[in-house]
Amino acid sequence: MKVANEQTASTGRALDGIRVVSFEQVLAGPFCTCILADMGAEVIKIERPGTGDIIRHWDSAVRGLSSGYVWLNRNKRSLSVDVKYEQGIEIVHRLVEGADIFFENFAAGVAKRLGLGYEELQAINPRLIYCSLSGYGQDGPYRDVKSYDLLMQGEGGIIATTGYPDKPAKAGIAIADIAAGMYSTLGILLALYQREKSGHGQFIDISMFESIVSWLGYFPHHYWHQGEEPGRMGMRHHYVTPYGPYLARNGKYVNLAVATAKDWEVFCLQVLQRPELLQDARFSTVEARRKNRAVLEEEIEKSFLERDHHEWVERLKKVQLPYGEVRGIAEVLAHPQAVARRLIREVESPVGRVPVVGNPLRLSDSPARYDRIPALGEDTQAILRDAGYDDAAILKLRSEKVI
Length: 403
What we know:
Blueprint: E1 19-23, H1 28-38, E2 42-47, H2 67-72, E3 76-80, H3 86-97, E4 101-104, H4 110-113, H5 118-124, E5 129-134, H6 149-155, E6 163-164, E7 167-168, H7 175-198, E8 203-207, H8 208-213, H9 219-226, E9 243-247, E10 253-257, H10 261-271, H11 275-279, H12 286-291, H13 293-304, H14 309-319, E11 323-325, H15 329-333, H16 336-340, E12 344-347, E13 354-357, H17 380-386, H18 391-399
Parallel strand pairs: 1-2, 1-4, 2-3, 4-5, 5-8
Antiparallel strand pairs: 6-7, 9-10, 10-11, 12-13
Helix pairs in contact: 1-7, 10-14
């Protein structure tokens, strides 16, 4: 099997030749365009002179650079331009003439008020694909309500289903932002494919709210058909048991999943070595085990405290039941699988080469690239020259604080 590697880069990447003009900030939008940039697209990131993307200032963890900016902005070109000025809007319009995609993730209506709405830009370039990512979408009663990932996890039902019975919790990562960013990427790629047949672009409306609600999975179906609001189950599965991490004698967790009748038999006989559980009618089916979860969980937890975690892992491995460990970040970054597949890469940055988590997309003929993280406005002059501005015009724009 042919696998992606740096040597195949000379044959081109999937999105080589695609230009993205991105009016983006913080997380959801930059997550989307980072995927596009990794796969070869030229992403021109529009940033405000002097301050840039606000995520640049959230911390200084990466030798003075923001961890969030380093995470999301590799392979991009930074254009520092103030779109409050008419000349700034003119620069963006000129870039759009030769662009394939315009992306924006500001509050609904902001881009349009600035003269960067879909109708305005589509008139300049009918083949333009325009993607708007916002909290609640471009219409509806919540259109103008401010949105952050935490708020979306609450509005979208994540917090209500996460945590323990006596205390809710949010997911540890920004899942609403990431979900919306991924759907934006998918929408853009679908629109590019459709443009090959239709010859013209289209408008893509992505909301964080709808993105995260679409991730609720089986919860809506339990409500529609059984009137059931899912509770908070801590580290356990809502509907399947045993399923989750169990604490072993040496203080480490063992993760496991028993999802079929055969798995339950193997788990009782060969892992726990407690055949009486297999004979107990209270635990005979998935539904029965769920109904009697409290009793069953107590028995399993007592059993796991009798042995160290590596003994349980060996038993699970031997009978080929799904298993895993609960690892901290340091352990994850040094995970044997991450090392074997070179998941951790390095890219250039204003403070030298820094490590990044690699792109999980592994296309045999389109390896992800790992070039650089731009300083604020680093590419402004080169981009403007490519757009037809001469040195005198660029100097004038700089003196007028447009760039």
